[in-house]
Amino acid sequence: MIKQINWQLNYEIQFHSRSYRTVESYTAFMLWSPAICAFLLLALTGASQGGKVALVYPLEAGFHRRSVITIIGAVDPDAKDFRVDFEIDGSNILFHFNPRFYGPKKIVLTAKSNGAWQKEKYLNNPLKPGSKFKLEFRCQEDFFKIYLNGKYLLDFKARVHPLNAVRAIGIYGDVTVNKFSIKDM
Q1: Domains in the chain and their CATH numbers?
Q2: pLDDT digit string (tens) for 141-160?
Q3: What start and end residues bound the annotated signal peptide (predicted)?
Q4: DSSP 3-state assignment of 143?
Q5: Any residues with CB less than 8 A from the CB of 55 and at least 6 apart, and which?
Q6: How far apart are CA 167 and CA 89, in angstroms?
Q7: How far apart are CA 94 and CA 87, in angstroms?
Q8: For a surface tag, which of 60, 84, 128, 170 has the fewest beta carbons within 10 Å of its beta carbon?
């Protein structure tokens, strides 16, 4: 299906290893499904709320048990934070993983349901600005097992939606993504 997409931006977007500098209005015609078009627009809109878009990966059918999402990258040297969002739509995020490098350096873990953020969980942040990392999210029946640099970090239970409801993975903020993959265990 061909969709016309119009947008106006004034920042740089990293999408599938390509860099796009956007400083004016654009129109594009894309041969994608409506779901992919919607999530691309969601990602472009989301960048204005939280810094640059490092990567947005659209999913047609969500995850299933035993999927492994791997992100290899580097925290920007002057980083304030970055986030990995498992997005359902604009009002619902199944899982929000947000390492912060200001104030008490922590990782914030939460979800968003019907536009409202849920109760946050906090961990000490072992990442440092300028550091390289390998982050793995291993999907189980109704939770993620999270590993950082090969070491188990924690489990995060899907609170409000099943894993197969996820329609995109968005990586935003002060981070560079060098490799991204989704595989079955």
Answers
A1: 2-52 (no CATH), 58-184 (2.60.120.200)
A2: 888 999 999 999 999 998 77
A3: none
A4: strand
A5: 14, 15, 16, 169, 170, 171, 177, 180
A6: 7
A7: 6
A8: 60
Contact present, 144 and 95 (Cβ < 8 Å): yes
Q: How far apart are CA 127 and CA 147, in angstroms?
A: 13
Question: Angle at Cα 86 formed by Cα 6 and Cα 58, nearest 5°?
Answer: 45
Nearby residues of 114 by Cβ (< 8 Å), 6 or more positions away: 91, 92
Contacts of 111 (CB under 8 A, 6+ apart): 93, 94, 95, 96, 117, 118, 158, 159, 160
Helix or strand or coil: residue 43? helix
Give the integer Cα–Cα distance in Å for 12 and 20.
6
pLDDT tens digits, 24-54: 344 444 444 555 554 454 444 444 345 678 8
> For all residues of the chain together, what is the average pLDDT?
79
Taking alpha carbons only, the member of 172, 162, 175, 147 closest to residue 69 is: 147
Q: Among residues 62, 119, 72, 80, which one has the least CA distance to residue 96?
A: 119
Q: How far apart are CA 170 and CA 174, in angstroms?
A: 13
